[in-house]
Write a structure and sequence with these properties.
single chain, mainly alpha, Four Helix Bundle (Hemerythrin (Met), subunit A), 2 domains, 5 helices, 2 strands
Length: 193
């Protein structure tokens, strides 16, 4: 299998990556372009090994079965990638802050939609879900503050990707699927009654 040349040639010393067979490697980490061009390559979870963060493409695996929310989750991925690439490409402080503002606006709009949906369907764990949304926004505030203070860097790009893309994947799998099941159970109850 021929892989495209990495987008960046700079070595990322001290970081462990994965080779094309998905085996741990002390070589450079595969670029985002390689991951996008070869979606079959295994992508490690960021919490397992430091320095293995990679952009992940949207997948139907992340669908929860609520069309509007699923569409917004897909847009959230796009916003996450935009933020990561703005930091990594060091588009200048203004470009990076613009990407953070875009992510903030997108997250606020998405969270408002989700929260209204959960209220409309009397989701019993709404308070906990709201706390998770508030915590996400606090982390985004911290990231923005660090970007303003220190400027763009690989470390902050990785942190941004972990706190947006990886948080979203975990949040969909662990939390959003629960309210989707709650809604579907209610719909089934309505049909039976």
């Amino acid at each position: 299998m021929m892989l495209p040349a990495p987008v960046r040639d700079e070595p990322r010393s001290g970081l462990r990556g994965f080779d094309v067979q998905g085996q741990p490697s002390d070589g450079p980490i595969a670029s985002a372009a390689i991951c996008r061009a070869h979606p079959g390559l295994p992508v490690p979870r960021s919490s397992n090994l430091a320095g293995t963060l990679m952009l992940r493409e949207w997948s139907d695996v992340y669908l929860i079965g609520i069309e509007e929310i699923d569409r917004q989750h897909q847009g959230f991925f796009t916003a996450s990638h935009r933020l990561y690439e703005a930091i990594l490409d060091r588009e200048g402080r203004e470009g990076v802050i613009e990407a953070v503002a875009f992510m903030r606006d997108y997250a606020e709009s998405h969270f408002d939609t989700e929260e209204a949906f959960m209220r409309r369907h009397a989701y019993p764990d709404l308070a906990d879900h709201l706390r998770q949304h508030v915590a996400f926004m606090r982390h985004l505030d911290d990231l923005e503050n660090d970007l303003r203070t220190f400027g763009p860097s690989q470390e902050l790009a990785d942190r941004a990707l972990e706190m947006t893309q990886d948080w979203l994947i975990d949040h969909i799998a662990d939390e959003d699927v629960l309210y989707a099941l709650h809604v579907k159970a209610g719909e089934l109850g309505d049909q039976a009654g």
